[in-house]
Amino acid sequence: MADHPLQLRELRRILGRFGILEDTGRGKGSHTLFYRGSLSYPVPSKGGRTVLRCYVSGVRKKFSLRAQDGVTDQQFYS
Prior knowledge:
By secondary structure, this protein is α+β, with helices and mostly antiparallel strands. Helix content is 32%, strand content 24%. It contains 3 helices and 5 strands. The strands form 2 sheets. A 3-stranded antiparallel β-sheet has the order 2-3-4, with helices on one face. Strands 1-5 form a two-stranded antiparallel sheet. The protein starts with 5 loop residues before the first strand and ends with a helix.
């Protein structure tokens, strides 16, 4: 299964399971910031509330949530 667009609330739920928090006050403009420790990644939070595939892939790469990092697509999306 390849990465696919998600609703922002679903991405929040998924990332929360992996200990990644959201700081809505630190994003720039219409972005929200997801963080864990010293790592952070901004994600657009406006425009229909759908997070594009490229941002989902970026979040997974930044926080080491890919198959090569030990987190399968099934574990991530379930």
